[in-house]
Design brief:
The chain has one domain. Helix content is 68%, strand content 0%. The radius of gyration is 17 Å and the shape is flat.
Amino acid sequence: MDGAAEVQENTGMKNVELNEVEWGQVLDGLTCRVALYEETVGYYELGVSYGRIAEVRDADEARTILNYYREIIGKIEKQLGKDGYVQTVEDLRRNIS
């Protein structure tokens, strides 16, 4: 095993190869989770919700999960480069129309 593979195995990191549209879908899904947890934090802090909320104990748990999703999105965008932009299915639809 080469050095890079050993480090990767020891840290639990995984490489995933997806095309630009597929990465767009992953980011879109993660962004939906961010919106859900933002709504949940708002519900616990303000007592009102304008959409669905997640099942969590309190605002702190929701905020922790929200920040985790934001970190994941940031890591993906950083690794993809191009200022984090990836082509989404919506982009493709706009180009076809």
